[in-house]
Amino acid sequence: MAGRKIILSNFIREVWNAGDAEACAKYLAPTYTIHHDPGDPWHGQTLDLDGFKARLRQSRAPFPDQCFAIQELFEDGNAVVMT
User: Each residue of 17-38: pLDDT tens digit?
Assistant: First the structure.
């Protein structure tokens, strides 16, 4: 896997699958805007690191054992897509 693919894979595994909010600092910028499916309640919001940790905890609360299975990762320039 190329560098960006590894970063995304590790982010999904450590942060979303394991729920490790403290690992967020390794992967996230100080602030960022969420560009996602318009049905996502966080769509369009700009969060800082503490805001993302709150989002992670809130999103995982009803499903603490959730696990995202990465089927494929595609990289093109600075973009990485996960299916």
Answer: 999 999 999 999 999 898 877 7
Question: What residues of the chain score a pLDDT lower than 70?
Answer: 1-2
By DSSP bridging, strand 73-76 and strand 79-82 are antiparallel
Exposure string for 47-70, b = 16+ CB within 10 A, e = fewer: beeeebbebbeeebeeeeeeeeee
Question: Quick one: which H or E segment has residue 83?
Answer: none
- Tell which residue, 81, 79, 78, 26, has the closest CA to residue 53: 26
> Distance between alpha carbon 52 and the CA centroid of its chain, in Å?
9
Domain boundaries 3-82, CATH class: alpha beta
Domain extents in the chain: 3-82
